[in-house]
Amino acid sequence: ARFVQQVSRPRGRPTGAEFAFTEEPVPVPRPGTALVENVLLSVDPYMRENMDADWELSTPLEGRSIGRVTDSRTGALAEGDLVFHRQGWRTHAVVDPKDVRVLPQTPGVPPETYLGILGGTGLTAHVALSRIARLVPGETVYVSAAAGGVGSAAGQLARLMGAGRVVGSAGSPAKVRLLTEELGFDAAFDHRAGRLGEQLAKAAPDGIDVYVDNVGGEHLEAAIGAMREFGRIAWCGAIAQYDATEPPPAPRNLFDLVEKSVRLEGFLVRNHRDAQEELEQLLLPVLASGAVTDRHTVTEGFDGIVDAFLGMLAGGNTGKATVRVATS
Ligand code: NDP
Question: For ligand 1, is residue 321 a contact (CB within 6 Å)?
């Protein structure tokens, strides 16, 4: 069995030297628990934040993952069950049944969907639109980091919820094409290719009502500038600043929120797990029909997990970044 530990704190952008791979005998489950062989691991931006302080050095890391029960010492889990649990960054895990979810087997919905659009990633997008921004049909929505996990879910969910116009930004021409040609965005632009404010004004000439912010900083400033009166900003994340060693200078136009009566609200998806059932009811039919897609960028092999994580932070992924550790 193998696992990854963080061995040092990064200063700015991590290089990979902060992590170490460690080997141990395959753990034996205690009575009441089960051994899981991990199949898919999730790498997420919040892990970059955890690297600064929350993750204890030289202990196995955590993360969302999906694995197969291979040795069960509890009646609650059967060998062969595919389970969702939170002990990622390792090949094997001993789980307590109360901490796992046995994944349903639904035709047309592969298990990795539960790390993507049906997992915390999709739930974040759903909560942002439905509970935080309270999207009203016909409104214009702008999503940043729109080709990523949360972003690609948010664009498609906004469409499903009746948005009038859906606009996205992402970090390459290929991602921009993906947004408009495959993910149903009405307009998209490359945040590396020009001034954000000007590009956003062109993509949403009448302004925006809802902004799903995955990036913060200058993206948030541009969105505040484009906001219509009574707009709402659902602040999910600020990936532009996770590597920063100083607080970001932007947004410099916060007072516009007052002048435009805009509501900006941050949230953590972990406080909204009760919305999971609603998300599944909304998405299961459209996933099965192919009307909504759950994109992943899958890195093959446990050895690739650090590169998958760093690659995701640098924009190497489209859709949810995951790592395949074993064949299911
Ligand atoms: P993504 O799949 O979106 O991957 C991160 C993406 O961020 C990259 O692909 C890259 O895309 C983009 N990015 C990186 N650096 C920058 C930058 N400086 N400026 C603009 N874009 C950048 O990750 P997730 O979908 O998992 O997460 C998206 C956001 O949502 C993150 O901020 C995350 O912290 C947040 N989040 C919040 C949750 C909550 O509970 N509030 C829960 C889950 C996620 P590109 O090539 O387009 O630049």
Answer: yes
